[in-house]
């Protein structure tokens, strides 16, 4: 690997030692879903010149009961990156991934999604869930769970533990599976609320949103100003 690549990855991403081009440079961790084609020149441009936000992916399983999320993290990450690079000229770096066998959290209790008067109510299960993955190098953690509430995902999180979950029960996939990850991430990054217009906006509640979903200039500004968005 060329010295300038090693230097850029070490300086910007904090990765050093023996590097994997796929994992440490491109942030690709999954072989289940083929990732989008990668250009090293484009990735170097992102690393060296574009704002980035780091995300850790944690998949929660119950292997004994064969409760394993049917989610597709690599697809989700690629689709979210497509949106963020097109709409914000920024990118999302997968800092690390983990699988945690926690049967007690594959179906967890959450008292609300989106907050209530006086603030979001954090259930005991949710409090335990959002403790996972906090030592992996990113402030924002995405949790893939086999089943949760009727919601397909939610970005309400305990104070000081930024993150969101995406549910994937067999018969209740997220309403917009292609961009559920991107939608929930954008609730966290920039604290973007739901909107009703424009119709193709990523942050509407409409079902069936696609990778072509848009962001408004105000949403883009909030994303780029987020404290976890690292500037080059």
Low-confidence segments, given as residue ranges, are none
Strand coverage percent: 15-25%
CATH superfamily: Collagenase (Catalytic Domain)
Largest sheet: 6 strands, mixed
Average pLDDT score: 86
CATH topology: Collagenase (Catalytic Domain)
The structure class reads alpha/beta
Oligomer: single chain
Q: Write the H/E string, N to C.
A: HHHEHEHEEEHHE
CATH secondary-structure class: Alpha Beta
Report the span from N to C terminus. 22 Å
Helicity, as a percent range: 25-40%
CATH architecture: 3-Layer(aba) Sandwich
Shape: globular
Radius of gyration: 17 Å
Number of strands: 6
Note the total helix count.
Answer: 7
Total number of domains: 1
Please explain how this structure is put together.
- There is one protein chain.
- The protein has 232 residues and is α/β, with parallel strands linked by helices.
- It has a single domain, classed as Collagenase (Catalytic Domain) (3-Layer(aba) Sandwich).
- 28% of the residues lie in helices and 16% in strands.
- Strands 1, 2, 3, 4, 5 and 6 form a six-stranded mixed sheet that branches.
